[in-house]
Amino acid sequence: MPLIHDEQKYVIPRGRVYFDPFDANGNLTGEIPFGNCPELTVTIETEKAEHFSSQKGLREKDASVVVQVDRTGNLVCDNITSSNYGLWLSGTNEKITQSAVAVTAELRAVVPGRFYQLGSTPSNPMGVRNVTGITVKNEAGSTTYDVGDDYNVDQETGRVQIVEGGAITAGNVNFGYTPVAGEFERAKTGAASEIQGALRVVSDNATGGNRDHYMPKVTLTPDGDLPIIAEGTDFVQLSFGLEVLKPANAEAIYADGRPVV
Q1: CATH 1.10.10: does it fit domain 15-93+189-256?
Q2: What pTM did the predictor assign?
Q3: pLDDT tens digits, one per residue of 137-170
Protein backbone atom coordinates (compact mmCIF):
# COMPACT_ATOMS: atom_id res chain seq x y z
CA MET A 1 0.00 0.00 0.00
CA PRO A 2 1.48 3.43 -0.94
CA LEU A 3 2.25 6.12 1.62
CA ILE A 4 -0.67 8.42 2.46
CA HIS A 5 0.17 12.11 2.76
CA ASP A 6 -1.96 14.79 4.35
CA GLU A 7 -3.67 17.28 2.08
CA GLN A 8 -1.91 20.66 2.17
CA LYS A 9 -3.83 23.57 3.70
CA TYR A 10 -3.18 26.60 1.53
CA VAL A 11 -4.83 29.85 2.60
CA ILE A 12 -5.47 33.23 0.98
CA PRO A 13 -6.83 35.21 3.95
CA ARG A 14 -9.80 37.55 3.83
CA GLY A 15 -12.23 38.68 6.50
CA ARG A 16 -14.08 41.36 8.41
CA VAL A 17 -12.42 43.26 11.27
CA TYR A 18 -14.22 44.58 14.36
CA PHE A 19 -12.85 46.69 17.21
CA ASP A 20 -14.53 46.81 20.64
CA PRO A 21 -13.13 49.79 22.58
CA PHE A 22 -12.85 49.81 26.36
CA ASP A 23 -14.61 52.48 28.37
CA ALA A 24 -12.92 54.37 31.23
CA ASN A 25 -13.46 51.34 33.52
CA GLY A 26 -12.02 48.80 31.09
CA ASN A 27 -15.42 47.42 30.02
CA LEU A 28 -16.23 46.52 26.43
CA THR A 29 -18.68 48.88 24.73
CA GLY A 30 -19.68 47.08 21.51
CA GLU A 31 -17.88 46.14 18.33
CA ILE A 32 -17.27 48.77 15.64
CA PRO A 33 -16.88 47.38 12.10
CA PHE A 34 -13.69 48.62 10.48
CA GLY A 35 -14.93 47.82 6.99
CA ASN A 36 -12.44 46.93 4.29
CA CYS A 37 -8.99 46.14 5.73
CA PRO A 38 -6.46 45.14 3.05
CA GLU A 39 -3.88 44.25 5.71
CA LEU A 40 -3.87 42.84 9.23
CA THR A 41 -0.70 41.17 10.45
CA VAL A 42 0.59 39.86 13.75
CA THR A 43 4.31 39.46 14.43
CA ILE A 44 5.62 37.38 17.33
CA GLU A 45 9.11 37.91 18.73
CA THR A 46 10.62 35.99 21.62
CA GLU A 47 13.53 36.65 23.93
CA LYS A 48 15.53 33.86 25.53
CA ALA A 49 17.68 33.64 28.63
CA GLU A 50 20.65 31.47 27.73
CA HIS A 51 22.93 29.64 30.14
CA PHE A 52 26.46 28.46 29.40
CA SER A 53 28.42 25.86 31.31
CA SER A 54 31.70 26.96 32.83
CA GLN A 55 32.78 23.47 33.95
CA LYS A 56 35.17 22.91 31.02
CA GLY A 57 37.50 24.97 28.94
CA LEU A 58 35.00 25.08 26.10
CA ARG A 59 32.05 27.27 27.06
CA GLU A 60 28.93 25.42 25.91
CA LYS A 61 25.30 26.38 26.03
CA ASP A 62 23.43 23.94 28.24
CA ALA A 63 20.06 25.73 28.71
CA SER A 64 17.85 28.10 26.77
CA VAL A 65 14.61 29.41 28.24
CA VAL A 66 12.03 31.67 26.60
CA VAL A 67 11.48 34.55 29.04
CA GLN A 68 9.60 37.09 26.94
CA VAL A 69 7.04 37.13 24.13
CA ASP A 70 6.11 40.28 22.23
CA ARG A 71 3.10 40.24 19.90
CA THR A 72 2.81 43.25 17.62
CA GLY A 73 1.38 43.90 14.20
CA ASN A 74 -0.15 46.30 11.75
CA LEU A 75 -3.70 47.10 10.71
CA VAL A 76 -4.50 48.98 7.50
CA CYS A 77 -8.04 50.17 6.75
CA ASP A 78 -9.30 52.06 3.70
CA ASN A 79 -12.91 52.47 4.89
CA ILE A 80 -12.81 56.15 5.84
CA THR A 81 -15.81 56.40 8.14
CA SER A 82 -16.18 58.95 10.91
CA SER A 83 -15.66 56.24 13.56
CA ASN A 84 -12.47 54.99 11.89
CA TYR A 85 -11.27 58.56 11.52
CA GLY A 86 -11.86 59.10 15.23
CA LEU A 87 -9.90 55.95 16.10
CA TRP A 88 -6.99 57.04 13.90
CA LEU A 89 -7.01 60.46 15.57
CA SER A 90 -7.03 58.74 19.00
CA GLY A 91 -9.95 61.00 19.73
CA THR A 92 -13.72 61.08 19.81
CA ASN A 93 -16.71 61.08 17.51
CA GLU A 94 -19.75 63.22 18.14
CA LYS A 95 -22.90 64.32 16.39
CA ILE A 96 -23.19 68.07 15.85
CA THR A 97 -26.61 69.66 15.54
CA GLN A 98 -26.86 72.80 13.45
CA SER A 99 -29.97 74.86 14.18
CA ALA A 100 -31.76 77.14 11.72
CA VAL A 101 -31.36 80.21 13.90
CA ALA A 102 -30.89 83.44 11.96
CA VAL A 103 -27.74 85.43 12.71
CA THR A 104 -28.14 89.15 12.01
CA ALA A 105 -24.92 90.76 13.24
CA GLU A 106 -21.83 88.57 13.45
CA LEU A 107 -19.14 91.20 13.92
CA ARG A 108 -15.83 90.35 12.23
CA ALA A 109 -12.70 92.26 11.33
CA VAL A 110 -12.02 91.80 7.60
CA VAL A 111 -9.35 92.61 5.04
CA PRO A 112 -10.12 92.85 1.30
CA GLY A 113 -8.97 89.81 -0.67
CA ARG A 114 -9.30 87.40 2.23
CA PHE A 115 -11.77 84.64 3.08
CA TYR A 116 -13.90 84.22 6.22
CA GLN A 117 -15.73 81.23 7.68
CA LEU A 118 -19.19 82.08 8.98
CA GLY A 119 -20.05 80.95 12.50
CA SER A 120 -16.44 80.25 13.48
CA THR A 121 -15.98 80.54 17.25
CA PRO A 122 -13.52 79.09 19.79
CA SER A 123 -16.11 76.42 20.68
CA ASN A 124 -16.98 75.74 17.02
CA PRO A 125 -13.87 76.61 15.00
CA MET A 126 -15.20 74.85 11.89
CA GLY A 127 -18.13 77.27 11.72
CA VAL A 128 -21.42 76.61 9.92
CA ARG A 129 -22.15 75.10 6.52
CA ASN A 130 -25.17 75.17 4.20
CA VAL A 131 -26.34 78.71 4.94
CA THR A 132 -28.87 80.97 3.23
CA GLY A 133 -29.57 84.68 3.15
CA ILE A 134 -25.96 85.84 3.50
CA THR A 135 -25.59 89.61 3.93
CA VAL A 136 -22.64 91.86 4.71
CA LYS A 137 -23.16 95.29 6.30
CA ASN A 138 -20.89 97.92 7.79
CA GLU A 139 -20.28 97.93 11.54
CA ALA A 140 -23.11 100.40 12.19
CA GLY A 141 -25.51 98.30 10.09
CA SER A 142 -26.44 101.33 7.97
CA THR A 143 -24.84 100.18 4.71
CA THR A 144 -25.57 96.91 2.93
CA TYR A 145 -22.84 95.75 0.56
CA ASP A 146 -23.49 94.11 -2.80
CA VAL A 147 -22.75 90.43 -3.43
CA GLY A 148 -20.60 89.98 -6.53
CA ASP A 149 -19.24 93.51 -6.38
CA ASP A 150 -18.11 93.79 -2.76
CA TYR A 151 -18.03 90.15 -1.65
CA ASN A 152 -18.50 86.62 -2.95
CA VAL A 153 -20.15 83.71 -1.12
CA ASP A 154 -20.18 79.91 -1.08
CA GLN A 155 -23.41 78.96 0.66
CA GLU A 156 -22.55 75.24 0.89
CA THR A 157 -19.36 75.81 2.87
CA GLY A 158 -20.48 79.03 4.60
CA ARG A 159 -17.53 81.04 3.33
CA VAL A 160 -17.31 84.70 2.32
CA GLN A 161 -14.60 86.36 0.22
CA ILE A 162 -14.12 90.12 0.54
CA VAL A 163 -13.47 91.46 -2.97
CA GLU A 164 -10.42 93.66 -3.48
CA GLY A 165 -11.36 97.00 -4.99
CA GLY A 166 -14.94 96.82 -3.72
CA ALA A 167 -16.69 99.07 -1.25
CA ILE A 168 -15.58 97.06 1.79
CA THR A 169 -12.36 98.36 3.35
CA ALA A 170 -10.26 96.88 6.14
CA GLY A 171 -12.18 97.04 9.40
CA ASN A 172 -15.26 95.59 11.06
CA VAL A 173 -18.33 94.35 9.22
CA ASN A 174 -21.48 92.50 10.25
CA PHE A 175 -22.31 89.20 8.61
CA GLY A 176 -25.91 87.97 8.46
CA TYR A 177 -27.03 84.46 7.51
CA THR A 178 -29.32 81.57 8.43
CA PRO A 179 -27.86 78.03 8.76
CA VAL A 180 -29.82 75.08 7.43
CA ALA A 181 -31.02 72.80 10.23
CA GLY A 182 -29.32 69.42 10.26
CA GLU A 183 -26.87 66.99 11.86
CA PHE A 184 -23.38 65.89 10.88
CA GLU A 185 -20.61 63.80 12.40
CA ARG A 186 -17.38 65.24 13.77
CA ALA A 187 -14.16 63.40 14.56
CA LYS A 188 -11.55 65.24 16.58
CA THR A 189 -8.30 64.47 18.32
CA GLY A 190 -8.13 63.69 22.02
CA ALA A 191 -5.57 63.59 24.78
CA ALA A 192 -4.78 59.88 24.35
CA SER A 193 -2.14 58.69 21.87
CA GLU A 194 -3.45 55.11 21.81
CA ILE A 195 -6.74 53.28 22.21
CA GLN A 196 -7.35 49.91 23.88
CA GLY A 197 -10.05 47.35 23.28
CA ALA A 198 -10.70 43.90 21.83
CA LEU A 199 -10.13 42.94 18.19
CA ARG A 200 -12.14 40.32 16.31
CA VAL A 201 -11.63 38.97 12.79
CA VAL A 202 -14.43 36.98 11.16
CA SER A 203 -12.75 35.01 8.40
CA ASP A 204 -14.05 34.63 4.83
CA ASN A 205 -11.00 33.32 3.01
CA ALA A 206 -10.55 33.33 -0.74
CA THR A 207 -9.24 29.80 -0.35
CA GLY A 208 -8.59 27.56 2.63
CA GLY A 209 -10.59 26.86 5.76
CA ASN A 210 -11.90 29.83 7.70
CA ARG A 211 -10.36 30.51 11.09
CA ASP A 212 -11.77 33.34 13.22
CA HIS A 213 -9.46 35.31 15.51
CA TYR A 214 -10.13 37.13 18.75
CA MET A 215 -7.71 39.25 20.77
CA PRO A 216 -9.30 40.31 24.08
CA LYS A 217 -6.87 43.16 24.72
CA VAL A 218 -5.05 45.14 22.07
CA THR A 219 -3.62 48.61 21.79
CA LEU A 220 -4.13 50.55 18.55
CA THR A 221 -1.63 53.30 17.82
CA PRO A 222 -2.08 55.56 14.77
CA ASP A 223 0.84 55.12 12.42
CA GLY A 224 1.93 56.60 9.10
CA ASP A 225 0.62 59.37 6.89
CA LEU A 226 -2.93 60.56 6.28
CA PRO A 227 -3.26 62.01 2.77
CA ILE A 228 -5.61 64.99 2.99
CA ILE A 229 -4.75 66.23 -0.50
CA ALA A 230 -2.98 64.03 -3.03
CA GLU A 231 -2.18 64.27 -6.73
CA GLY A 232 -2.43 60.56 -7.48
CA THR A 233 -5.37 58.15 -7.59
CA ASP A 234 -4.48 55.92 -4.65
CA PHE A 235 -7.24 55.33 -2.14
CA VAL A 236 -6.67 56.81 1.33
CA GLN A 237 -5.64 54.29 3.98
CA LEU A 238 -5.55 54.53 7.76
CA SER A 239 -2.67 52.60 9.30
CA PHE A 240 -2.48 51.47 12.93
CA GLY A 241 0.31 49.89 14.92
CA LEU A 242 -1.04 46.90 16.83
CA GLU A 243 0.13 45.51 20.17
CA VAL A 244 -1.51 42.33 21.44
CA LEU A 245 -1.56 42.11 25.23
CA LYS A 246 -2.46 39.28 27.60
CA PRO A 247 -5.44 40.05 29.85
CA ALA A 248 -5.42 38.97 33.47
CA ASN A 249 -7.94 36.15 32.98
CA ALA A 250 -7.65 35.20 29.32
CA GLU A 251 -5.11 34.37 26.63
CA ALA A 252 -3.66 36.88 24.20
CA ILE A 253 -4.96 35.34 20.95
CA TYR A 254 -7.73 32.87 20.17
CA ALA A 255 -7.97 31.30 16.70
CA ASP A 256 -11.05 29.10 16.15
CA GLY A 257 -12.06 26.99 13.20
CA ARG A 258 -15.70 26.40 12.27
CA PRO A 259 -17.85 23.47 13.44
CA VAL A 260 -18.36 20.84 10.77
CA VAL A 261 -22.04 20.41 9.92
Answers
A1: no
A2: 0.83
A3: 999 999 999 999 999 999 999 999 999 999 999 9
